[in-house]
Amino acid sequence: MALQSLDIVRRSATTTPSPAAREQPRVAKLLDASRCIGCKACQVACMEWNDLRGEVGHNVGVYDNPADLDEHTWTLMRFAEVEPEGGNLEWLIRKDGCMHCADPGCLKACPAPGAIVQYSNGIVDFHQENCIGCGYCIAGCPFNIPRISTKDRKAYKCTLCSDRVAVGLEPACVKTCPTGAIVFGTKDDMIHHAEGRIADLKERGYQNAGLYDPQGVGGTHVMYVLPHADTPEAYSGLPKEPAIAASVAAWKGPLKPVGMALLGLTALGAFLHYLKYGRKEVEEEAEAATGRGQRGEV
Amino acid sequence: MSQQSMIDRYTAGERIIHWVTAIAFVLLAASGLAFFHPSVFWLTGLLGGGTWARVLHPFVGVVMFVAFLLIAVRFRHHNVLSGNDRAWLGRIGDVIANRDAGVPPIGRYNPGQKLLFWTLLASMIVLLLSGIVLWRPYFAPSFGIGTIRLGALLHALSALALILLIIVHVYSSFWVKGSMEGMLRGKVTRAWAKAHHPQWYEATRK
After folding, report:
1. pLDDT, tens digit, for every residue of B165-203?
2. Is A224 helix (H, G, I), strand (E, B) or coil?
3. What ipTM is given for this predicted complex?
4. Cβ-based contacts of B158 with chain A (< 8 Å)
5. How far apart are CA A15 and CA A2, in angstroms?
6. Which residues from A are below 8 Å from B157, CB to CB?
7. Positive or negative torsion for Cα B103, B107, B113, B114
8. How big is the CA angle at A242 (ends A238 and A245), to the nearest 5 degrees?
């Protein structure tokens, strides 16, 4: 929902400028994987604040519950048992959800004007009333986040509690996290906070600890502190170098103006051909000569 | 023109299937371009708005494919490149400039029409296959994300090729006076046939 339409800086399928009279500071949510205990309080808080109730599912043999993101599950704890160094089992838990890319692939791919917006504070939000249900956002997203509802065919994902943030509150998951694994503030502050955490982790032997703020999508407004930042894939498939796919970039980039221009030029070419050469007409004498009626009507 | 000087070119059935394809094409091009470029998103109005356009576009697509397939089956043997076709293509500059004297005589379809026929068929096959990959909610969920992305790109490329060819096709039907009547009422004048498709004209006299 657009509480602050003045703060929208980018709007899907829109080629004219958005309101730019004011600008908010960039915000970010920092998820510290080294502090997360996998309690799923954030999942519950998300359901509570956004008033979402999914179907009660089944245990599929792992801790992930529900098994995947869906229209009712905008954030999900993903659990991975891995051996980063031989024989050293680690339980890597990651809170999955929208990364709020600075350069959002979903927004780039979306054909419906105003169905996806980006606020000046960096939050990427879906406006379901404008969504046509085509699923292009799914093709555009490098993180496999948007989900189409089986009921209303609209796309849903984490809003970073844009409604709460707009009135000066932190997102619900941040509010509820019992270990301080989720923090929220300006992006600069969060990067600074992460540096402290990373220094601490390195001191404790996590030499590859680092910040996940992938530049391939212009950086993200949801960032991770990862003890094993050299292998983000180990955290349930977090992509190492996410970027908008080349096929999507071509399709929703140069092909759009080039394609439209090509069609326009073809039509123009046809008109110019008519102006220069005119129509191919069969001469009247030829009509008369071949016509059996010979009545001369044309 | 009197009835005696007209010859049959298309049966009622052939004309109906052509215009089913044509109407489906207009609806598809309008809604497809609307999804392609925001400047023409308003064209979704033709199918009842954004969501309705998204719902209906693939079904109309199947109608167009099936209709064109019927045309393709019926007319494929008329569209094999042969005889004077290569020589005719060598004089394409003269054909375009309406300097038709001395251009090699051709049959029921000219090589330009034949090439159009095969490229239309190819683009529609690509559109059908890539369209199935993109079709929500029915088929898209069963394809991988890489396939869907490639499908979207191929769908856009082949659709652009198709629309471009149809612009040429529609203009040509206006350019060559008398052609439109052939597809609307099924008949062309003898002079038209003799001038534009002399070998076919000779064949109809036997």
Report:
1. 999 999 999 999 999 999 999 999 999 999 999 999 999
2. strand
3. 0.92
4. none
5. 19
6. 255
7. negative
8. 130
Contacts of B180 (CB under 8 A, 6+ apart): B173, B174
- Any CB–CB contact under 8 A between B50 and chain A? yes
Give the number of other Cβ atoms within 10 Å of residue A293's Cβ: 14
d(CA B79, CA A251): 33
Q: Quote the CA–CA distance of A143 and A96 in Å, as a whole number.
A: 9
Query: Percentage of chain A surpassing pLDDT 90?
Result: 85
Q: What is the pLDDT of residues B148-166, one digit of tens each?
A: 999 999 999 999 999 999 9
Q: Where in chain B are the domains?
A: 11-75+105-205
Predicted TM-score of the model (pTM): 0.92
The residues of B that are catalytic are 169
Residue type, A219: G
Query: Using CA of residue A112, residue A115, residue A118, residue A124, what is the dihedral sign?
Result: negative
Domain B11-75+105-205 has CATH 1.10.10.10: no
CATH architecture of A5-244: 2-Layer Sandwich (3.30)
The two tokens of residue A128 are 């379901």
> CB count, 10 Å around CB of A108?
22
Interface check B175 vs A, CB under 8 A: yes
Is B148 within 8 Å of A138 when comparing Cβ atoms? yes
